[in-house]
Specification:
The structure is a single chain. This protein is mainly α and 206 residues long. The protein has one domain: Methane Monooxygenase Hydroxylase, Chain G, domain 1 (Up-down Bundle). Helices cover 81% and strands 0% of the residues. It is built from six helices and no strands. It is globular and about 60 Å long.
Length: 206
């Protein structure tokens, strides 16, 4: 009986879907924020991240034993780890809410969470098209969409940080929210980095 090929493209899409789930949970938490619920929500987010982490480990285990891969094995490993980093960073935002005992959410956090949802959804679309990238008219557009969203996140970040440092009077609020906003922006950066790797892989295999 012939050995069934492992479909790494489908595995990527599966982990990217976990990133969407995490992004939607972050959006819901931010827009309906209750300080007394954040510990429980933090644990729920960890479960999402852990499930994605297990998928990454399974992918790597298969990759180690694979003789022939559809794209370079180094690229497969890099994409898997970079996808996992996105979920790690979303979880870190929750950890900050809990560790810093955030009592009140800022409006800009909701704007960042919207962009993170949009970015993860666009990135998932990239992975859905990745296996057949030579025939896809959509993948290039979705890669560009991820890049555009990251630019919007950069603009929001500069505006938000400026207002934080010029208008907030409580120095502890400045310290806490500067770190949190750093992580919000980092998630969008990481989505763009994954999209850029996909673009590089496509060029190498075209």
């Amino acid at each position: 009986m012939a050995k069934k090929d492992n479909n790494y493209f489908h595995m990527f899409s599966d982990i990217a879907n976990d990133a969407i789930t995490a992004a939607h949970q972050l959006e819901s938490t931010v827009k309906n924020y209750h300080p007394d619920k954040i510990e429980k929500q933090n644990k729920a987010m960890h479960e999402i991240e852990h499930a994605a982490d297990q998928k990454k480990h399974n992918l790597m285990k298969l990759l180690i034993s694979e003789f022939i891969t559809p794209i370079e094995r180094e690229d497969i490993a890099t994409i898997a780890y970079m996808l996992d980093d996105i979920l790690d960073s979303i979880e870190e935002v929750y950890q900050m809410f809990f560790m810093y005992n955030v009592k009140k959410m800022r409006d800009e956090a909701a704007e960042f969470s919207d962009l993170i949802v949009r970015s993860t959804v666009a990135l998932k679309s990239c992975f859905d098209e990745f296996e057949n990238f030579r025939k896809s008219d959509l993948i290039g557009k979705k890669i560009v969409e991820v890049n555009v969203i990251e630019e919007l996140a950069d603009t929001l970040y500069f505006k938000t940080m400026r207002e934080l440092y010029t208008k907030e009077k409580d120095p502890m609020e400045v310290i806490v929210w500067a770190r949190i906003f750093d992580h919000f922006e980092k998630v969008c950066d990481q989505c763009e980095n994954v999209a850029d790797i996909i673009s590089t892989v496509i060029m190498k295999n075209s």
